[in-house]
Structure formats: C-alpha cells, structure tokens
Amino acid sequence: MKRKLTITVDGALLDDAERLARSRGVSLSSLIETSLRGTLADDASTVAARWRGAFRPAERDDPRYQALARKYL
Fold first, then answer.
1. CB-based contact 28:17 (threshold 8 Å)
2. Is residue 36 a contact partner of residue 25, using CB atoms and an 8 Å limit?
3. Nearest alpha carbon to residue 26 among 18, 14, 38, 36
4. Predicted TM-score of the model (pTM)
5. How far is 51 from 45, CA to CA, in rounded Å?
C-alpha cells in the first residue's frame, strides 16, 4: 500500500533529482523509492558479503598461525 510522505531536501539536490527522474522517464517518487529499496537491500546483505575481503591471511611465521597449525594440523 502506498503512503504519502513529506520530506525536506536541499533545493539544488531537488533540482538535480527531478532532472535525473525526467531523464529516466520516471517520477521523482519512483526514483526515490528505487533508491531506498537499493539502500535497504545493501543493508540486508549477508554477513559473508559484508566481511568479504576484510581479512588477510595470517603469515606462516605469525605465532598465532603456528599455534593454530600445531593444534589443528
């Protein structure tokens, strides 16, 4: 169900957003709704996706690596 919303934005931002919506052939409301859906989808990404690439492998001369290797290998 659609609901009405009143927001306040900077005038220059509004002008740019209206221009972008016109160039895409959509309403400003549709443009904002699509942007919000994309933002919410990004926040709902999996834990694995959020942490992917955040860790680097331990060096083999790292004492923590050696302790874990002794324990588990």
1. yes
2. no
3. 18
4. 0.57
5. 10
